What we know:
The structure is a single chain. By secondary structure, this protein is α/β, with parallel strands linked by helices. It contains eleven helices and nine strands. The chain has helices at residues 14-24, 30-39, 91-101, 126-135, 161-167, 183-192, 209-216, 221-230, 247-257, 263-274, 278-284; strands spanning 3-8, 42-48, 78-81, 83-84, 109-111, 139-142, 173-176, 196-199, 236-237. The strands form two sheets. A six-stranded parallel β-sheet has the order 4-5-6-7-8-9. The protein has a three-stranded parallel β-sheet with strand order 1-2-3, sandwiched between helices. Strand 4, helix 3 (91-101) and strand 5 form a beta-alpha-beta unit. Helix 3 packs parallel to helix 4 (126-135) and helix 6 packs parallel to helix 8 (221-230). The chain is globular and about 50 Å long.
Amino acid sequence: MKIIDAHIHFSNIGSFKETAEKLSRVHYSADGLEKEMKDNRIEACIGMGVTETEHEEFPARHASTPMLLDLEETPGRVAVCPGVNPWRLDGSGLDALEKELQKPESVGVKIYLGYYPFYACDAVYQPVYDLAAAYRVPVVLHTGDTYSERGLLKYSHPLTLDEAAVMRRDVQFMMAHLGDPWVLTGAEVVYKNPNMYADLSGWIVGAGVEVEEKRRGRHFDHIRHALTYCEHYEKLLFGSDWPLVPIGDYAACIGDLIPSRHMEDVFYDNALRLFPKLRAFIENGTSGR
């Protein structure tokens, strides 16, 4: 079965490098990503753009919009959702984001709720939604736990996405991580709103024995409940959150949770439906960067 990984990272972020070295033990590089894609029949990946500045770890207040994939030269078949720093959404930031969205490899936009202190429905993001609607690309919204102790969880709770989805029916949204640990709430927001999708990424950090123990234990009990409640498998997308976990290990975990009749949708077809630019990008076979 071919797979599209709809949520990875490929940015020069200190915490990602440390996790790759000490926990997931993946080779966090272009060569490492290309090998994982080849070994696991990954047709394409979508990288979530994020950057640090020289003096600031993520979330960096002074990082420019758009935030991109800056680890090293991006492999072919790795698309990008340029990241947004709401502190830098002045005229030049929005102009730069629009120019990025005109590129074939830019297939969506990423907003880091919880890392920055604004709700999804805040006025600061409305110009971003305007651009997403104009260019027919989805907006990916971080939800749930943050990978930084400086995050503020009230801004990343999945219930707060309901208002944005209702306000902006002209925009397609993807809730990253299904709002874990509040996945039942996330499932309700997806169930209720026709323009809300979710990726199933970021539920494990680690590799090997650690992943297998969680796969065989009760780690996913709350997620099984949420997926069964939601039922809308046509709106759920596979994502790994690499480099936090090896892609193949994580795909096996998600495969345990999805009914067989929905596997191709979750692992491949739904990504093509939600990200309209992705099919042409895959056919061209290169990032163009």
